[in-house]
């Protein structure tokens, strides 16, 4: 039973992250559409609003709930996991992921109400939050207690720095074209 739960947990985690990554791309496109001419803005905004609503309610939110349900069920089936220090850190990242998720939900509501005020640049940086959480959780789960926490924390900050530098480089390249 445990391996079935684990497989389902992984499947829905992948779906959840896919939804989170794509929803933020839609936020970028929606924000950029607000800078277009009135007719383009109207058409694009309406289309992105439909896409955002469907992605959030049909894929992203249900996948997050199911990933969590199967994760908790795994802990019920194997409570020894809760004795492992790496699991405590992983659960902290799960809480951070849910906070990120609920903030994205606020942006979905703002698009629904046509009052999203953040820029596309903000959302490009915002998207890296999920990336950092994903890297952190995968390394924690794979390396478990073998991970050196200091190097892990430093590594996450280096990753964040590299992502920020990459974003700035990409922005300069876009501005040149």
Quick recap of the structure?
The protein is mainly alpha-helical and 177 residues long. The protein has helices spanning 2-33, 38-77, 85-112, 120-143, 149-176.
Task: Provide an overview of this structure.
The chain is mainly alpha-helical and 177 residues long. It has one domain. The chain has 5 helices and no strands. The longest helix has 40 residues. The chain is flat, with a radius of gyration of 18 Å. The chain starts with a helix and ends with a helix.
Number of helices: 5
Instruction: Give the strand content.
Output: under 5%
Instruction: Say how many strands there are.
Output: 0
**Which spans of ≥5 residues are poorly predicted at pLDDT below 50?**
none
- The best one-word shape is flat
> What about the largest sheet?
none
Number of domains: 1
Radius of gyration (CA) equals 18 Å
Overall mean confidence score, pLDDT: 89
Helix and strand composition category: mainly alpha
- Helical percentage: over 70%
Provide keyphrases for this structure.
mainly alpha; 177 residues; 5 helices; single chain; 0% strand
Helix-strand blueprint:
Elements: H1 2-33, H2 38-77, H3 85-112, H4 120-143, H5 149-176
Helix pairs in contact: 1-2, 1-3, 1-4, 2-3, 3-4, 4-5
């Amino acid at each position: 039973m445990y391996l079935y739960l684990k497989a389902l947990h992984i499947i829905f985690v992948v779906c959840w992250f896919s939804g989170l990554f794509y929803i933020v791309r839609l936020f970028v496109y929606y924000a950029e559409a607000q800078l277009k001419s009135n007719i383009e803005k109207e058409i694009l905004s309406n289309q992105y609003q439909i896409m955002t609503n469907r992605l959030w309610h049909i894929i992203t939110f249900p996948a997050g709930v199911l990933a969590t349900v199967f994760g908790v069920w795994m802990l019920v089936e194997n409570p020894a996991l809760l004795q492992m220090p790496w699991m405590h850190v992983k659960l902290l990242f799960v809480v951070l992921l849910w906070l990120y998720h609920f903030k994205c939900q606020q942006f979905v509501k703002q698009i629904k109400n046509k009052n999203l005020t953040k820029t596309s640049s903000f959302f490009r940086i915002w998207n890296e939050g999920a990336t950092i959480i994903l890297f952190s959780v995968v390394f924690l789960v794979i390396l478990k207690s073998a991970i050196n926490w200091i190097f892990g924390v430093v590594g996450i900050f280096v990753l964040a720095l590299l992502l920020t530098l990459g974003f700035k480089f990409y922005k300069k390249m876009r501005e040149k074209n």
